[in-house]
Amino acid sequence: MVRLTINGTPIETDADPEMPLLWLLRDRLDLTGTKYGCGSGLCGACTVLIDGRAVRSCTVPAGTVTGAVVTIEAVADARHGFTPDQARLADRVRRAWIAEQVPQCGYCQPGMVLAALALLAVDPAPTEPAIAAAMTNLCRCGTYDRVRRAIRRAADDRG
Ligand code: FES
Ligand code: FES
Q1: Ligand 1 centre and the CA of 47: distance in Å?
Q2: CA 90 – CA 79 distance, rounded (Å)
Q3: Which of 32, 52, 78, 113 fits a disulfide with 87 by CB distance 3.0 to 4.6 angstroms?
Q4: Extents of the domains making up the chain
Q5: Pocket around ligand 2 at a 6 A CB cut-off
Q6: Domain 79-156: which topology?
């Protein structure tokens, strides 16, 4: 049995508590926006937020999660599971991602967006080194420059 709060909704499933959170999200809850890349905590494709922190869900047994989980599905409408401040930040990040046309194939982008959200929540005006330190997700399409531009744009956007 696993009990979680995901995107603001309490969830109870009979999943094995040892099941990685990533599998629970994708295979049991059909939240397939969270992607599987390496399965080893290296690439960041599976990044979700747990209590606002970016976490690689492939490495976390679902039964050990006590905090509120937010996935990219929540960012899609910036409401579920977010406080009003987080929702405004999610809107800014989404606008910036679109304005900078960040994605190429898109596979890494859910993890990138959530890592950026976690960064901007604690550091609203991150320096280049701070961005580099926080954004360790991998992108096989090489969108790194656009990711950085989008983060700077979101930081500058107070509208
Ligand atoms: S799939 Fe989790 S870090 Fe790569
Ligand atoms: S946009 Fe293709 S892997 Fe990043």
Answers
A1: 7
A2: 9
A3: 78
A4: 2-72, 79-156
A5: 103-109, 139-141, 143
A6: DNA polymerase; domain 1 (1.10.150)
In the chain, what percentage of residues exceed pLDDT 70? 97
* Cα 77 to averaged position of ligand 2 atoms, centre (Å): 22
Output the CA torsion sign for 73, 141, 19, 69: negative
CATH architecture of 2-72: Roll (3.10)
Which amino acid, one-letter code, is at 81? Answer: G
Interval between CA 137 and ligand 1 midpoint (Å): 9
Name the residue of 140, 146, 147 whose CB sits within 8 Å of the most ligand 2 atoms, as the mutation to test its pocket: 140
Residue 81: what pLDDT?
76
User: Would you place residue 105 in the very low, low, confident or very high pLDDT band (cuts 50, 70, 90)?
Assistant: very high
